Amino acid sequence: MKLFSPRISTSVLILFVGLITFTSQAQEVEWLSWEEATALSSSEENPKKMFVDVYTDWCGWCKKMDKDTFQNAEVAAYMSSNFYMVKLDGEGKEDIEYKGKTYKFVPSGRKGYHELAAALMQGRLSYPTTIFLDEEMNMLSPVPGYQKPEPFLNIAKYFGDNIYKEKDWKTYAAKGE
């Protein structure tokens, strides 16, 4: 008695090889801690810009952006090659050094907030908010709210490709580049 016919075995093998090929082509974002990203930035001759995803554990839109936007292969590939990618818990408890200052967790209301998240979001505690910093870790712009892959990539390229140095956002966005 045969358990598998050659035809079925061949089909399963083709499906398996296709799955492995697809999986190996998919690129994922390599998230770093704040400390890892700042260490890399200061140690390299040509550091990348920094991208900070400010999230909270309870934020549904943050989780949706992780799944839909940051797992998009084109977004992941572009971001990984142009930015140090950092996840920052807006309610994180650890102290973080930034530009010579120590930022701490501030108990407030039911949960509290992290001072660095509040500083980067310019006092507007809204999740998710994505932050773009230049190679010297100076603020380029916070971008509040959930972003779908294509609009997000457009924003990321505006900063990552240094278009912001030549054109204001309205001019760039109006041309649909």
Any overview of this molecule?
This protein has one domain (28-174): 3-Layer(aba) Sandwich (Glutaredoxin), CATH 3.40.30.10. It is built from 7 helices and 9 strands, in the order H-E-H-E-H-H-E-E-E-E-E-H-E-E-H-H. It is an alpha/beta fold and 177 residues long. Helices cover 42% and strands 21% of the residues. Helix 4 (73-82) runs parallel beside helix 6 (149-160). The protein has a 5-stranded mixed sheet with strand order 1-3-2-8-9. Strands 4-5 form a two-stranded antiparallel sheet. A two-stranded antiparallel sheet has the order 6-7.
Roughly how much helix do the residues carry, as a percent range? 40-55%
The Rg value, from CA coordinates, equals 20 Å
- Tell me the name of the CATH class: Alpha Beta
Unreliable stretches covering 5 or more consecutive residues:
8-25
Order of helices and strands: HEHEHHEEEEEHEEHH
**How many domain units?**
1
Note the gap between the termini. 62 Å
**How many beta-strand runs?**
9
CATH topology: Glutaredoxin
- Secondary-structure-based class equals alpha/beta
Number of helices: 7
Shape: globular
Looking at CATH, the homologous superfamily is Glutaredoxin
Q: Which second-level CATH architecture applies? A: 3-Layer(aba) Sandwich
State the major sheet. Answer: 5 strands, mixed
Defining key terms:
5-stranded mixed β-sheet; 7 helices; alpha/beta; 177 residues; Glutaredoxin
